[in-house]
Amino acid sequence: MTPTRFRRPRTLVVRLDSAGDVLLAGPAVRAVAAGSAHTALLCGPQGAAAGRMLPGVDDVLTYDAPWVGLEPPPITRTATRRLMETLTAGRFDRALVLVSYHQSPLPAALLLKLAGIGWTAADSEDYPGALLDLRHRRLPHRHEALAALDLARAAGFALPPGDDGALRVTPPPPTTRLTGPEPYVVVHPGAAVPARAWSPGRAARAVAALSAEGYRVVVTGGRAERELTARVAGRHALDLGGATDLPQLAGVLAGARVVVAGNTGPAHLAAAVGTPVVSLFAPVVPAERWAPYGVPHLLLGDPNAACADTRARHCPVPGHPCLDAIGDAEVLAAVAALTDDPADQGEHTERGATV
After folding, report:
1. Keywords of this protein's UniProt record, alphabetized (predicted)?
2. CA atoms within a 13 Å half-sphere pointing along the CA-CB vector of 136
3. Which of 79, 123, 232, 326 is at a distance of 20 to 30 A from 151, taking alpha carbons?
């Protein structure tokens, strides 16, 4: 069963986890919007700001799901009843539940059915019973952005003509007043999952090395990361920790020559504004699914480290070797390659680096 040919449906897209995951859902959301009269996005609190930046979204609904997130809330009848009332009031005809390869869509699908949404689609390895009207099977080793787009197509939603399927956000505000007019490189040292970021000391040394090489460096981070960004920036970089909301951060990233970041939301935000990414990619999750999508990028890190595929939130190996062992020479070579810098690139070995 696919959306009716006679009346474009009111469609709900569900993506309940982080900002990065919501950004990766952007191409699928645009496909849904092209075939819908109204497109709403149901996000968790960590993804709502990113959802508001996605083209094609008419409304963003928020629900802190007890089965998602680093610190999930308790299950309460009050929160569940409030969600049911919101979804029922939305009069949705269709719903797509987007999940990562290791997640189940069935808790969300159950709530959608209870709210009266008549047709629901999702990728599901688990038997869904009556919870899904379209049980889709994702292709093996599929990038998260493409897997979401595959589901949208299977549900009858295609990207409009001329849409290349890249990540995209609404135009960010100008941020020259924050960064200054001179060219710069961004280093984003933080991540919601510590295993996916450099240690603070390692990030600080990389910033010092970039500065010594002649790059002007801007360090970014959220309000809770001000202590981290101050330490990493030191006397070598401009510290914008806590100075931007998500749209302003998009503007800062859009103005950068290249962004150096771990596998975290700002890396996907950089891709969404078309900026090349040096991705410090810890192999706790597979790069084939979460690498920067649709922009020039280089992966740095040891893909065969002992932490590979563990989905660990905190590094289980002393010294965090998969990322902290990346040398300054590798970082400088990667930044030079992505900025077309004529500086010597032939003397360095880029361990684990791929484009």
Report:
1. Glycosyltransferase, Transferase
2. 26
3. 79
Asked if 275 and 199 count as a contact pair (C-beta separation under 8 A), the reply is no
Q: What is the pLDDT of residues 316-350, one digit of tens each?
A: 888 889 999 999 999 999 999 999 754 433 333 23
Four-residue CA torsion sign, 140, 145, 148, 152 = negative
**For 86-100, how does the pLDDT look when each residue is reduced to its tens digit (9 = 90+)?**
999 999 999 999 999
C-alpha pair distances (Å), 248 with each of 237, 243, 273: 19, 9, 12
Query: Checking DSSP bridges between strand 277-280 and strand 297-300, what pairing results, if any?
Result: parallel
Token pair, residue 103, equals 């997640």
Q: Buried b vs exposed e over 14-39: b needs ≥16 C-beta within 10 Å? A: bbbbbbbbbbbbbbbbbbbbbbbebb
pTM beyond 0.90: the answer is yes
One-letter identity of residue 9: P
- Evaluate whether 196 touches 284 at the Cβ level (below 8 Å): yes
The string over 192-223, giving b where at least 16 C-beta atoms fall within 10 Å of a residue's C-beta and e elsewhere, is bbbbbbbeeebbbbbbbbbbebebbbbbbbbe
Contact 177, 163 (CB under 8 A): no
Tokens of 146: 């493409």
The DSSP letter of residue 69 is S
Contact 271, 283 (CB under 8 A): no
**Each residue of 235-267: b (16+ CB within 10 Å) or e?**
ebbbbbbebbebbbbbbbbbbbbbbbbbbbbbb
Cβ count within 10 A of residue 119: 21
Rounded to whole angstroms, the Cα distance separating 154 from 137 reads 10
Enumerate residues 6+ apart whose C-beta is below 8 A from 173.
247, 248, 251
